[in-house]
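Project outcomes to date are best conveyed with an example. Our students and postdoctoral researchers have been running inverse folding experiments weekly, and each run begins with a structure described purely in tokens. The record below, which covers 342 residues, was selected by the lab manager from last quarter's runs and is presented without edits.
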């Protein structure tokens, strides 16, 4: 199938966004380009950062998917069935989310500045202040897929080109890649938030606390700052704030409590037939990671620190419910994506 110069421009924009950890972490986010009846969309489990070095897009019949979306949610939640031709890669689990837009170019990112607002209980009110002048809508959290696409579709007006997804991220849509890129920059700038001045952290002291299987995050890692702030520490351990954290780092964040040692905590998890947490916050000291932590989990660990440091202290936050956590962990599409990312 022929792919236009506009498609080539999309791969460049995709790679640029994918290499920015404040916009994309690991295999998160996706982009698409509609060329008549075919929509090229990032394949599941691939990374946008690679868009300029390998072929990560697959073609789907977006019009048929959009038609099915209004008739059969379960069928629309199987994007592989809408592939145009035979391909070894699956379309993104969020293909239906792209299909509902009339605009030719759709860019979905997990912008940490946006998420820092989208996790707040008063998100829609705050967004009203930050996005004044934009044609935008807010959609509270729903598991990614066809149900989310339907919810977004209900909020779309013909001119709507900015969607903020509660506890999830940001979507911008335009008819050209240059317009989509410019819109993305403007919206990200509108969400940009300051971070507090970092407090000193002793990595040597953390190494003394660490036990077998754990090492400190590198000096300057944002999670260290989370462990040094009582409000941020409570916010991190209270629950899961967005889907990709659940998939790659587990539910919420584990905090070393009381007099328990890291070694005792690890042994306690193993006795309960649970994997020890991939990240561990040590109050007043900093953060440790499991020594076998994958690159994807490391990216999401940094994301947690980046998001919380941009969240206004004292804000009431909205967390995923236990049912929402478990539906992600037991979801075949997410198991597939996680498997591709270690």
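After processing, the design step wrote out the following sequence:
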């Amino acid at each position: 199938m022929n792919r236009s110069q506009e498609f080539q421009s999309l791969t460049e924009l995709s790679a640029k966004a994918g290499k920015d950890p404040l916009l994309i972490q690991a295999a998160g986010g996706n982009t698409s380009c509609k060329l008549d009846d075919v929509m090229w969309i990032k394949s599941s489990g691939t990374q946008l950062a690679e868009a300029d070095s390998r072929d990560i897009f697959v073609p789907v019949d977006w019009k048929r998917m959009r038609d099915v979306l209004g008739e059969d949610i379960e069928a629309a939640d199987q994007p592989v069935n809408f592939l145009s031709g035979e391909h070894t890669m699956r379309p993104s689990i969020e293909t239906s989310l792209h299909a509902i837009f009339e605009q030719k170019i759709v860019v979905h990112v997990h912008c940490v500045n946006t998420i820092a607002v989208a996790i707040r209980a008063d998100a829609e009110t705050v967004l009203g202040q930050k996005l004044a002048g934009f044609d935008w809508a807010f959609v509270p959290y729903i598991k990614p897929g066809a149900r989310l696409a339907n919810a977004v579709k209900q909020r779309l007006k013909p001119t709507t080109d900015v969607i903020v997804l509660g506890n999830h991220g940001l979507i911008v849509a335009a008819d050209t890649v240059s317009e989509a890129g410019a819109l993305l920059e403007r919206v990200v700038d509108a969400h940009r938030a300051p971070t507090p001045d970092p407090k000193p952290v002793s990595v040597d002291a953390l190494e003394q606390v660490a036990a077998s299987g754990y090492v400190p995050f590198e000096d300057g890692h944002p999670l260290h700052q989370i462990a040094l702030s009582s409000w941020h520490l409570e916010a991190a351990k209270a629950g899961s704030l967005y889907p990709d954290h659940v998939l790659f780092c587990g539910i919420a964040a584990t905090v070393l409590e009381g007099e328990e040692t890291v070694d005792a905590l690890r042994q306690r998890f193993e006795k309960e037939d649970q994997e020890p947490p991939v990240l561990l916050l040590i109050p007043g000291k900093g953060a440790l990671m499991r020594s076998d932590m994958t690159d994807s989990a490391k990216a999401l660990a940094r994301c947690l620190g980046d998001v919380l440091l941009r969240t206004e202290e004292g804000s009431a936050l909205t967390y995923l419910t236990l049912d929402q956590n478990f539906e992600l962990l037991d979801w075949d599409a997410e198991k597939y994506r996680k498997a591709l990312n270690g």
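The two ends are 31 Å apart (CA to CA). The first strand starts at residue 30 and ends at 35. The training component of this project remains on track.
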